[in-house]
Specification:
heterodimer, A: about 110 residues, 7-stranded mixed beta sheet, 11 strands, globular, B: mainly beta
Chain lengths: ~110, ~120
Amino acid sequence: DIQMTQSPSSLSASLGDRITITCRANQSISNYLNWYQHKPGKAPKLLISPPFTMGSGVPMRFRGSGSGTDFTLTITSLQAEDFATYYCQQNFHTPWTFGQGTKVEIK
Amino acid sequence: EVRLVNSGGGLGRPGGSLSISCAATGFTVSDNYFTWVRQAPGMGLEWVAGIYRGYNTFYADSVRGRFTISRDISRNTVHLQIKGLRDDDTAIYYCARTVMTPEDYYYYMDVWGEGSTVFVSS
């Protein structure tokens, strides 16, 4: 199975901050990577699909990059509604696998 | 409105069976692929099962032989049947419509149900 590792596992940031979350695969997955946002009690929400296509209604402050084994999700100016847990997920091979998540909290 | 509405789940006994479903509105299940993802208490998201690639079924090793994903086209619903319940099946189960891009075979989950809770306890 393809292992996905996110870093950091959590971070504290202030409104307006630029933050970057890293996702690393243990083998090349080309561009077969999605990013999701998940808030407690809610359904996960698609943020970015390959190759860095924004999900429906996703603000432009979310940006994805990378290929092969190393990927990043950047939020250019953190807003109040962005405090959530973020997951990367590879769809290169089944079983699809998620990173362990990065929880973004208010500083 | 395009939606997936969860039903089913609840309390199950170890070794028992449960079924959870997602009813689609605003689109037809016959034209789409689907995924089930779960989140155990305090844990992250875990891919469980999917219908992809010519409507073939795929399963995580931890559930293969116990879980069955299916589509009921007449009811426009997706099902996940769970047999041989184990304590570690306790989780919120999400269904998701899964899109495949025809050129590169990228898959992504764009519409999600709100989740069904499965709690396994004796």
